[in-house]
Amino acid sequence: MPLPSIRSQQRTVEVAWFSALCNEDCEFLGVPAGHLRSSFQHCGDLVRRSDALGYQNILLPSGWSPGQDAMTFAAAMAVQTKQINQLVALRMGEVWPPMLARAIATVDHLAQGRLTLNIISSDMPGLKESNEERYARSSEVIQILQKLWTTDGPLEWRGRFYNFNLSSCEAAQPFQQNGGPLLYFGGISPLAQELCAKHCDVFLMWPETEVQLAATMAEMSARAAAHGRVIDYGLRIHVIVRETESAARSAAERLISKLDLAKGREIKARSLDAQSAGVLRQDALRAKAGADLFIEERIWSGIGLARSGCGSAIVGDPDQVLAKLNRYIDMGMRAFIFSGYPHLEECDLFARYVLPRLPTGRLNEQQGRRLANPVTPLTTAERR
Angle CA(7)–CA(355)–CA(237) in degrees, nearest 5? Predict the structure, then answer.
């Protein structure tokens, strides 16, 4: 199959883990575990461990109840980590854009450029809007952020959702120059894909068959090209890796061994994206799977029985997991966001068995993001 046009031509991938800010860590799917409940200590342990083990990024998801605010959490973690980026999920429209730009710039300076952003367009907590309304607002917010990050001097904005006139944009100047933090985005509907093609840097996909993933990448490359752009591709997926394939499959079966299916449906329904096009496509794939819940070789869909969003895992021994990842890399994927249950234990196992065997590097470094001098103030020329 032909490779899509991608920004990062080198066969180097950014490998990220996941911090369970939205209270979905567990030992058995659908069974609450008090010691794994979302807390600053537990979620901070996930970030610090991922940093120490050499992951290049970590996703901080956005939810409502229960959960922690991803941006506030990232600010605290920025000064407790050494090398890892943080991928902060932000729902567009929750915060007045100039204030959001300043908050992002502040965290970017705290992290000395180790900040990336996951753009979210799902419904606001307690509010239901049309897809058109949500994506139109997101598009406007992204454009405002990018203007504020790169404009030297005053900025006037007149749009559908926001109207303001700022005498200065200096408060929003990020540590990362030449455009600000990289923007990651996931969504399978036409409106979602168009938003990413126009404005974002990395298109994130959820688990599907290789044929479906390749078709999505080809479509997104064409959409981006229509706007004179080239984007990168990433995959958000769980992983269950053990010394042997039989042990990995046993771990997968154990994970859902105490799950009540009605309880699982209830858990999924709580999510703000429970009826999104991406979730429904994964549900359809799982419905066609056999009794073992594998939608194709190595891809097990059991997690989707009680989780909205990413609902499948790569399951196998180290060589099998690596082989599957290499197939994805050969397809043109340049970013992976992994997780597993419990997240801390699976983070260790993946780092032991697979991570050292992958050609890793950060996407923002590959794409030439220039970092500001953390001591010397920026000159007017540098801000441009």
Answer: 65
Taking every pair of Cα atoms in the chain, the longest distance, rounded to a whole number of angstroms, is 63
> 201 near 233, Cβ under 8 Å?
no
- In the prediction, which pLDDT does 376 show? 38
Please tell me the distance from the alpha carbon of residue 343 to that of residue 370, in angstroms, as a whole number: 33
Q: At what angle do helices 210-226 and 190-199 cross, to 10 degrees?
A: 50
- Cβ-contact 43, 68 below 8 angstroms: yes
Closest CA to 327 of 351, 297, 352, 307: 297
Which tens digits make up the pLDDT trace of 77-88?
A: 999 999 999 999
Q: How confident is the model at residue 374 (pLDDT cuts 50, 70, 90)?
A: very low
Nearest residue to 299 (alpha-carbon basis) of 309, 318, 285: 285
Domains observed in the chain: 14-238+331-383 (3.20.20.30)
**C-beta of residue 191 within 8 angstroms of C-beta of residue 125:** no
Residue type for position 75: A
Tokens of 236: 């958000």
Q: What is the pLDDT of residue 353?
A: 98
Q: How far is CA 193 from its chain centroid?
A: 15
**The model's pTM:** 0.92
